[in-house]
Amino acid sequence: MLKGFANAFRIPELRKKILITAGILLLYRFGAYLPAPGIPFSDMLEAYKNAASSSGALAVLNLFSGGALSRVSVFSLGIMPYITSQIILQMMQTVIPSLGELAKEGESGQRKITQYTRYLTVVLATINAIGYLFLFKSYGIDFSSMGIPELLENFIIVFVLVVGAILIMWLGEVITQRGIGNGMSLIIFCNIMSGLPTALISSVTTSSNGMILTIITFLVILAIIPLIVYIERGQRRIPVQYAKRVVGRRMMGGQSTYLPIKVNTAGVVPIIFASAILYLPAQLAVFFPRVTWIQSFANAISSGWLNWVLSVFFIVFFAYFYTSMVFNPEETADQLKKAGGFIPGVRPGTATAEYIQSVINHITLPGALFMAVLAVVPSIIFYFTSNQLIQAFGGTSILIMVGVAMDTIASLESQLKMHNYEGFFK
User: What domains appear along the chain, each with residue ranges and CATH number?
Assistant: First the structure.
């Protein structure tokens, strides 16, 4: 592992990508601590900070913003508006035929969809920013230190929060294009990891057996990580045989290979998407901070038995949904037929597509249920123990962190092998 990282820094191009990624993540963390205009450095924020750390819905939003929401920083909106926009655009591709055709046009079509995603992100960020303004004021946070009319003051706060969300979106895209790994996933990874010190201190000091519970939690996490890696790297290999053919005077084909289908083709995307959907009511609830039934509904969706049931449903749903988007059995069967390949015992064409689809359906369900169980069980434990370490590093957080870490290492691995260096995996 250490040799792999050392080799990565020997390649100028790869070293530049790693430094760009690290620099952008540091810039993002700086923005998470940079307060919005007019925020007083006084005890006025204490009541709001306590609510953001303990309230079910608000605490989850604060976790995914890396604590920026509790500090009323310029990055308070976090990455969620961008993720929600991606979910909406991807689901609309199955509903609106023109968008579906656009997604199949290759790079030019993807650029247009990315542009639509950015526009939608700005709209959602504006709506969220207005809601957060109501939320801040409901806890008595006063922005009058700017010394300007209240209407202009409100406009500046909303504008700063929206610009912060746009900047986060841009930083994530820069990482994806010029850095290592997926920018969106790495920002979420950074947000979750930033809560580790606070969660550790809170877990140890809040109860008499906090140290014992913290040690047990870490041991369980260490035991689960290899299982997550095993499932993430697991795959079903469908044997493929290529027919022999004569090209000129040479005999071509005849070799045997396999078609790899991952058990968890969607990776951590179902969990990220499910989290974004389930915490959408919490984001909407900030518009009505004093309406009891709206707050109760948002808290019920964000934690409790309703959250557990919906989490399982959405994770399984998005696992199948995203897998169907990234893996098309009809196209795969058509490509095999054109290349003279076939699956032994299966007729080429439609029968091959149906066979591949059947395999995908069978192996996706266990992987989706595994992710759902890991996401829900820690939430149930936290519901009864209120241990902050379990909340900050529950199943969802662990799956996201392990999945992002594996994707990033795999990206580094491919870059190293392109330059004839030994990678991380042997």
Answer: 2-418 (1.10.3370.10)
Q: Which of helix, strand or coil describes residue 259?
A: strand
Name which of 52, 56, 128 is nearest 85 in CA terms: 128
The SS3 of residue 140 is: coil
What is the four-CA torsion angle of 74, 80, 81, 83, rounded to 10 degrees?
140
Between 270 and 145, the more confident residue is 270
pTM equals 0.75
Which two tokens mark 112? 């247009």
Cβ–Cβ under 8 Å, residues 171 and 183: yes
Tokens of 362: 């069978």
Q: Worst-scoring range by mean pLDDT, 221-235, 275-289, 331-345?
A: 275-289
Q: For residue 173, what are its two tokens?
A: 């895209």
Contacts of 411 (CB under 8 A, 6+ apart): 180, 181
Instruction: Please check the confidence at residue 105 and state whether its pLDDT lies above 60.
Output: yes
Of 108, 316, 340, 315, which Cα lies nearest the Cα of 247? 340
Do residues 199 and 213 make contact, with C-beta atoms less than 8 angstroms apart?
A: no
CB 270 within 8 A of CB 370: no
Least-confidence region, from 204-213, 217-226, 274-283, 373-382: 204-213
Q: For residue 65, what are the contacts with CB-CB under 8 A and spacing of at least 6?
A: 32, 75, 76, 77, 78, 79, 80, 191
Please report how many Cα atoms fall inside a 13 Å half-sphere around the Cα of residue 190, on the Cβ side.
28
The residues, ordered by sequence, that sit 6+ positions from 331 with a Cβ below 8 Å of its Cβ are: none
